[in-house]
Each structure stands twice: as C-alpha cells, then as structure tokens.
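Good morning,

Attaching, inline, the backbone tokens for the sequence recovery test we're adding to the shared suite. The designed sequence is right after.
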C-alpha cells in the first residue's frame, strides 16, 4: 500500500469517527426531549391517579347501577390525545396531588405552617354581630337572647365555636379540603338534615375531621348526570366506625375548585397550600442557608506552589497549608517568602438580600399572602406605604370569613337555638372590620364626620336632633351615654301663639264664618265620615298606635309648611283610630303621631325626602 492509499484510509477513519460522535451526540440530545412511551404512561399515571374505573357510587336499595361508567368511551378522556412537548409537560405533570400524608409532613415546616395558619387567625380575630330574620315587621329583635347564645357559643369550655371555625379554615388550607361535623345525640346522619328532628339538649357542638379519616361517596346522580347541581360532589361521607353521613349534615369546603377530570385524584377536594408552595419554600430556605456560608467563605486566597514538591511530600505540604489557614483569617497575619505571588479574590455580596427576599416573596405569592404579612417586614421601594399589600390581605381574610366561618357559625346557631331553646330561626352573621383604628385615627375620623354633619345641618338636610341621635346610637361614639331628652322649645313668636310646640291651632275654638269646611273641619267632599262607620282597629294598629316613638324637630320654615298641610287636610276617623297619619309637602313626606285630633296636636316621628 502506497502513501496515497494510507492517507485516504486515514481520512476515512477520521471521518467515520466524527460521524459516529455526531450521531451519538444527536441521539443523546434528542433523548432529553423525548420520553419513551412507558415513561409517558408512568408520568400520566402519577398525574391522574384515579379514573372513571375507580368511581364507586352509593346506590339506594332496589335501584339498578347505571353502567355508563364501565364503558370504554371514557378511556380517551384520561389519555393525552395531542402531541405535547415532553420537557414542558414533565415539569407541570410532576406538580400533581401529593397526598394527605405528604401535606401533613410538609406542614411541619415553619414557613408552610405559617402560610396556612396566619390568615385564618387574622380573619377570626375581629368580633361579629349576630342577628336573625324576623317574620313580622313589628317584631323586635331580642338582643338579650342574641347576647346569651353568643357568649355560650364563644365559651372555651363549652362550644368554642370560633376556634372550631378557625381550625376548619386552617385544615382546609393544609389538605385542600375539610369537614365540619356536628355532634347531635340520637341523630340519623344517613338521612338528609331536618332541623325539626333535633331533640332538646341533643346538640353538643362541632368537631373538625381531617380528610384522612373519612371517605367521600358519590351516588349515581353525582357520577353520571353532569346537569345535576351535585355533580362531582360527595353525597355521603363514610366514617371509620361505619357511620355514613349525608352531606346536608356537614360543612364541606375545598380550597379552590379543580377540574372535574382531576377531582377523583384530589379525593374530591381542592389544592393544598403545601403542594403549591413546597418547592418555592425549599428554594427560599436553601438560598437563605447559603447566605451565612457564603459570608464565611467569600474570600479566596491564591498563592504560588510547586506541584512537583507537593506530590513528593504531600503530607508535609498539607500540614503547612493548615497552619497557613489558621494564621490567615480576618484578624490574623499571613506571611510569605520574598518573591512569592499571593492574590485574594472577594465574592461580592451586593444585592444578596434581594435574591433571598425574592424567593420568599415567590413563596408568599404562591400561598396567596402578601410578603409583608408572611415575613413581617416593611415593603421596600419608592413611595411604598404598604396600603396595597394590606388591602389585598384584607380581601383574603374576608374571603375566609365568607366561605368558611359564616356557614359554620350559621349552622351552629341554628342547631343551638333549636336544641337548647326550641327556636327555629335563620341567622345572619356580619364580621366587623379587620383593622381597628388607633385613638388618633378615630379622632380624625370623628372630626371629619363632625364637619360633614355641620354642613348637612346648615343645608337643611339634617336637623340637630337627628345628628344627636346618630351620635348616641353609634357604637364607637364617645357620647353614647348622654341623655336623649331635650327640653328646648321653639320661641313663642315662631309658633304663631300656639300652646304646644307643633299645635298652632289649639287656641282657635271655632271656625270663622264662611269657611268651606264640613262639620268635622275637613275640606271638600272627602269620605271621612262614611268610611269609618264600621271600622274596627286591628291588633297591629293598636301596636302601631301604642308603640313608643321619638319625635323629630323640624326647622321653622319646614314646620310651617307641614302645619299648613295638616290644616288643609285634617285627621280622619281611620287616622284617629290608628294614632298615626301621613302628610305631604312639596319637599318631604311625614309620618305624624296624633296627640289630640280635636286641636290638631301632633308629633313628627318620621320624615322622607320626596323622590
């Protein structure tokens, strides 16, 4: 073989090696972006842990089970029908339901635990006002009764309902779902809830059950009828002792609403907070732990060394390096031989705190809490006051109150009033403001209100008595204990010589000759005489007539207009029997209490603006 053939063979071998290396690199590169089919199936099985085959319906006795869930047409719904980028899909598919046990373990971390606990404590801290719906307009709400059952419910040794509600909201955030279970002696939980079945003194309180201790069961309608209001919602809850509880007996809430196809995987619950933030919490703590280690090792010292001598006498060289490290620190002195080169490289720690805080802020965002509240730090940035963060956090707390606390409190008070007092009522719960203003802030608010009231009084929109009544009735007012009685009367000359403050015609004994009035003093052809011949006042009229009312004092000009209206349209027999009358002027409508119909003596008890 001549030199030319040898050279050609050499070139061919080199080209073959390059081609093989390129092919190997291409296979390795493409393998990172394409998962084997078996890996796809395994990943899909982890993402969707339960399918239609795992759905078990609770069928009543004597009713056939619908076989639609056993057909093969549902299989395609649980497969990936379209091509998906494996790298992207793998990232999101691994963020599947991690299980209740994993959630409980992750909750031990201080940051995850605080994210679940903090908003529930802030949401339950403000007090609430309890009331009930009245069936009669004349019924007066029994405030003493409301105070009694509220104190009984909040007693830590008895029902402690506020702590029960807070625990319910905390467990819901930890596991994605939770169940509040009422303890009623002798109750048949398998049947739908009926308030009339509550026996006296049978209600003992509520308890919160973790989702690991109950099994959700769906009936045939909840599984096969998407038009049902209970579709994909548990119908019963099976307890470890075998008791099957109908959903109407419990308060079952979820943290968010997952798609129907994933509800069996999530055990019919919602998204647990630990599952949403555990990766971000790990990154935040890992970054925070690196900070002190980086601060201790940020200086790198470089010095010349002879590699041959190092390998010849390695042990002695290492001992010398240890001695050098002991001498060389922030407070020691390092020595070197003349002519040796020594360099020091410092790692910059600039903006390291921002890198750490960014990770914690991402954790707070994933948990749905502002970072300033979760980390208890002041917001940074130009002209940052924290008002926006506080407003968002208040919305989170208000959502917890409406979604978790109010349903539990309403159900509790219905059971308590029926069990202890035999009263069936529908209650309303209104939470107070989350933030309580300071004394200075309250004084500034009162000053603004005082200026507003003075403006309304000057414009004739309100009277001094109305403003005074508002101050007395306001729960946060400093004037709630002052007397509401005012002895001041209008001047004699402003009342036209009347003997009472709002009866200017008392001194007029008879009508002047030629007045176009009837015998009862009424103008026109009214039916005042004939309409009341067979009239008998009802019990409601008697209650309205004898109801204690508070008088309203009017400005002089407005008072004169009302007097003219009453003078032109005097009280008829029906109004005399009821004790109240309605009169109109050009600007207002008035309700007056008739003190003496003969001399047109009255008291204004209500006023409305004409629309």
């Amino acid at each position: 073989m001549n030199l030319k053939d040898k050279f050609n063979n050499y070139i061919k071998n080199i080209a073959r090696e390059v081609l093989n290396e390129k092919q190997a690199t291409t296979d390795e590169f493409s393998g990172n972006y394409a998962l084997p089919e078996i890996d796809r199936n395994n990943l899909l099985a982890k993402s969707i842990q339960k399918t239609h085959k795992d759905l078990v319906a609770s069928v009543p006795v004597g009713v056939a089970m619908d076989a639609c869930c056993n057909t093969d047409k549902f299989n395609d719904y649980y497969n990936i029908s379209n091509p998906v980028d494996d790298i992207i899909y793998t990232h999101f598919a691994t963020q599947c339901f991690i299980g209740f046990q994993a959630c409980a373990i992750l909750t031990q971390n201080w940051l995850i635990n605080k994210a679940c606990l903090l908003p529930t404590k802030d949401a339950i801290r403000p007090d609430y006002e309890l009331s009930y719906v009245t069936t009669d307009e004349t019924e007066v709400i029994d405030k003493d009764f409301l105070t009694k059952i509220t104190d009984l419910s909040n007693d830590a040794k008895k029902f402690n309902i506020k702590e029960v509600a807070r625990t319910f909201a905390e467990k819901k955030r930890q596991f994605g779902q939770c169940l509040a279970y009422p303890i009623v002696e002798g109750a048949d939980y398998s049947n739908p809830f009926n308030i009339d079945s509550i026996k006296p003194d049978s209600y003992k309180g509520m308890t919160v059950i973790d989702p690991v201790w109950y099994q959700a069961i769906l009936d045939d309608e909840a599984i096969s009828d998407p038009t049902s209001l209970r579709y994909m919602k548990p119908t019963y809850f099976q307890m470890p002792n075998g008791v099957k509880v109908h959903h109407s007996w419990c308060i079952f809430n979820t943290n968010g609403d997952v798609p129907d196809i994933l509800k069996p995987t999530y055990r019919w619950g919602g998204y647990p907070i630990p599952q949403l933030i555990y990766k971000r919490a790990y990154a935040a703590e890992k970054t925070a732990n690196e900070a002190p280690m980086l601060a201790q090792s940020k200086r790198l010292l470089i010095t010349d060394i002879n590699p041959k001598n190092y390998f010849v006498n390695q042990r002695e060289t290492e001992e010398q390096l240890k001695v050098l490290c002991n001498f060389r620190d922030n407070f020691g002195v390092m020595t070197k031989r003349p002519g040796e080169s020594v360099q020091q490289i410092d790692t910059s720690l600039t903006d390291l705190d921002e890198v750490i805080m960014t990770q914690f802020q991402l954790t707070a965002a994933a948990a749905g809490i502002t970072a300033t509240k979760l980390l208890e730090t002041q917001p940074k940035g130009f002209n940052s006051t924290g008002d926006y963060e506080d407003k968002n956090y208040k919305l989170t707390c208000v959502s917890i109150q409406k979604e978790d606390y109010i349903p539990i409190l309403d159900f509790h008070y219905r059971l308590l009033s029926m069990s202890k007092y035999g009263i069936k009522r529908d209650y309303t719960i209104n939470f107070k403001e989350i933030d309580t203003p300071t004394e200075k802030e309250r004084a500034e608010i009162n000053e603004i209100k005082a200026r507003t009231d003075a403006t309304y009084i000057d414009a004739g929109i309100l009277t001094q008595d109305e403003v005074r009544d508002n101050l007395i009735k306001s729960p946060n007012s400093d004037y709630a204990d002052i007397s509401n009685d005012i002895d001041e009367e209008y001047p004699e000359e402003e009342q036209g010589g009347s003997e009472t403050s709002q009866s200017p015609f008392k001194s007029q004994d008879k009508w002047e000759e030629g007045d176009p009035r009837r015998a009862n003093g009424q103008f026109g052809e009214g039916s005042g005489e004939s309409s009341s011949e067979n009239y008998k006042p009802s019990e409601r009229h008697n209650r309205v007539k004898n109801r204690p009312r508070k008088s309203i004092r009017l400005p002089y000009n407005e008072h004169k207009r009302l007097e003219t209206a009453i003078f032109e349209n005097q009280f008829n027999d029906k109004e005399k029997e009821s004790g109240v009358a309605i009169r109109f002027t050009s600007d207002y409508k008035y309700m007056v209490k008739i003190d003496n119909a003969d001399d047109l003596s009255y008291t204004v008890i209500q006023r409305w603006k004409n629309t």
